Amino acid sequence: MILVRVSAYTGVRARVGGMVNRGDLIGVDPNTRDAVPSPASGVVKEVNFDPASHTLTVGIESKERAAIRGRRRSSNVVGGVPDPEDGDRASKLRAG
Q: How many domains does one find in the chain?
C-alpha cells in the first residue's frame, strides 16, 4: 500500500473506497503547503488522522499491485476448483 501524508487543516480530497488517478490532488503538504498529487492510480483503502502532527495519512492500493495480488491468490484455482497439477501447496510446505 502506498501512503501519502497531507495536512489535516485543509483536509483530504479522496474518500475511502474511492478511486484516484495518478496526479489527482490528494491534499496539501503540511510543511510546504504545496499540492500533493496521488503517486499512483488505485483505490483509497484508508485515511488516518495523526493528532500529534495534525496530518492525515491516505493509504492507496495501486491498481497494478491489486492486479498482481489477485493473480497470486487465484494462481492455483481453475473455475473455483484447485488445479490438480498444482497440488496442495500448504501440504507441500509442511512436508518440506
A: 1
For 32, phi then psi, to 5°, come to: -100, -15
Q: Which of 46, 57, 61, 48 is nearest to 15 (CA)?
A: 46
Give pLDDT, residue 53.
94
Are the CB atoms for 38 and 78 separated by under 8 Å?
A: no
φ/ψ (deg, to 5) at 78:
-125, 115
Residue-wise pLDDT tens digits, 6-20: 999 998 998 999 999
In a domain, 86, yes or no: no
User: Quick one: what percent of the chain has pLDDT higher than 70?
Assistant: 66
Over residues 45-59, the mean pLDDT reads 95
> For residue 18, what is the domain's CATH number?
2.40.50
Q: Is residue 91 part of a domain?
A: no
